[in-house]
Amino acid sequence: MTFTYDPTAWGVTPPPLELARLYLGDTNRRKPLLEDEEIQIFLAAHNSDPVHSAFSACDAILAKVAKETDADGAGVRTNRSQLTTQIEGTKARLGRLLQATAKPKAMLGSKSAIANERADGDWNQPSSRRTNLARW
């Protein structure tokens, strides 16, 4: 298994794998959260999109650290791992980023949506009659 993260070698555009690592905050070579091969699986599943890949990778990291806990000084009380809390926050931040950068879809019933449906040949003319419910 390998770990790749070297911002000094990026040039103008960072490689998707290293950009996904940056989004995850997984930049510590001594204690990686995921191996390169694991991140590559997410990149392949999301057409090399580092934001989507990092968002999906958060669940893999959470699964790995689910059993970890932080103990107090006496080792008596345990809490959820700080890493778990950090990764959940990272996932929420990436989710907001994905929502902010999502392309809006055509509104149902808009002229462009109707034109696209007509072009596909699957369009049925909607009925213009309205039911008068007041009579019932």
Description:
Helices cover 48% and strands 4% of the residues. The protein has five helices and two strands, in the order αααββαα. It starts with 15 loop residues before the first helix and ends in a 16-residue tail after the last helix. Mean pLDDT is 78; it is low at 120-136.
Q: What is the helix fraction of residues, given as a range?
A: 40-55%
Number of strands: 2
Silhouette: globular
Strand percent estimate: under 5%
Tally of discrete structural domains: 1
List the uncertain runs: 120-136
User: How does the helix and strand content classify structurally?
Assistant: mainly alpha
Q: Average pLDDT value?
A: 78
Question: Helices, strands, pairings?
Answer:
Blueprint: H1 16-24, H2 36-45, H3 50-65, E1 69-71, E2 78-80, H4 82-101, H5 111-120
Antiparallel strand pairs: 1-2
Helix pairs in contact: 1-2, 1-3, 2-3, 3-4
Briefly, what is this?
The chain has 136 residues and is mainly α.
Key words describing this protein structure:
136 residues, mainly alpha, two-stranded antiparallel sheet, 5 helices, 2 strands, 4% strand, globular, disordered C terminus
